[in-house]
Task: structure prediction
Amino acid sequence: MSLRHSGQTAFVLLVGMASTTLPTPLYPYYQRHFGFALLMTTVIFSAYGIGVLGTLLLAGNLSDRTGRRPVMLAACLLGMASALVFMFSQGIGTLMLGRLISGISAGLFTATATTQIVESAPPKRQSRAALLATLANMVGLGIGPVISATTAMLLPAPGQSIFIIDVVALTVAAVMVWKTAETAPTPEPGPLLRIRCPYVPHYLLRPFIPAAVAGFAGFAVMGIFTSAVPNVMGQLMGIHMPLAIGTMALLIFLGSAVGQTGQQRLPIAMRLPIGAALLALGMALIGISIGTVTPVMLALGGVVAGIGQGIALRAGLGEMTRLSREADRASVTSMFFLILYLASVIPVVGLGLAAYAVGLTLAATLFSAGIGGLALAALMALFWLSAHPEHTTNADAAR
Result:
């Protein structure tokens, strides 16, 4: 195996994750076509997070029993099924079904392709392969809205054209998976699907809580940003061009990629605090942009929040890996991601309900302040822990 094989799987992951964000700039089109408001947009969007959560809980380790290739092929097929549902959508119900299937596909890709990318790399290159997997994930999520918006501008039938392209791209990805060598070890015995109950051991609770709070805030930012940007730009800023909406959604994912790649240059002890601080600053800028109706500040806030999210995500995962015992590591990581993906469901639906009750401007401003407050809370907790090291127990001391 080599990094070339990892690169091929990374391309498959990029295509799969891009497929999941293609509908983002099309939500204003669906709202006009089917006649629903922002509340239903956020509910439809949250179906994706539910699909991811359910898949990670039930089938996060499915590839350990069936092999990596069958699971990635299933993810490609589910992505195609989601595209077909969107292509022939007849209303809110089918849009929710398409997002749910897309979430299941993303859950399979996230859990399996990342493992395959690392396993395909030589032992000395596995750290670089893990970064490659993360970048493929984030860049894929980011370029999906831009590709979709560009297609909507250049081709007729925006609700169908992009999904035809999506099916073709996923077919190419499936062929690449078919030709990829299997990296999984001998399949483990046991049922194909089983609910995993992740846990956080007592010795990790103190460092885990601020890392999880910062991670929750980061994923909440990304979920709200991508689901609300079409309405914020259209209703508040008078910008209806799909390409402008797609590019705005791209910025937070590019910021995350920059944060994840650049965090290695920061002192280890300062990575998570800096990520949390940038998250809070980004949310402040986003809140101000909504109050002042300033698209440039919205873009700047998205980039800053994205960088903070990327730094906090990698730093949090790195801290949990460093502090946890080997026997606890898988469960701690699963709990961390479970909290992150809850952030892609709960705040998004909350924003829709709040917008329905008090209006989009006030709701978006309040949620920006709330998420920024979470990031600041994580920052203060981190500084408290650094000032009271006797309250932080590491894995060695717990043995």
In short: Residues 391-399 have pLDDT under 50 and may be disordered.
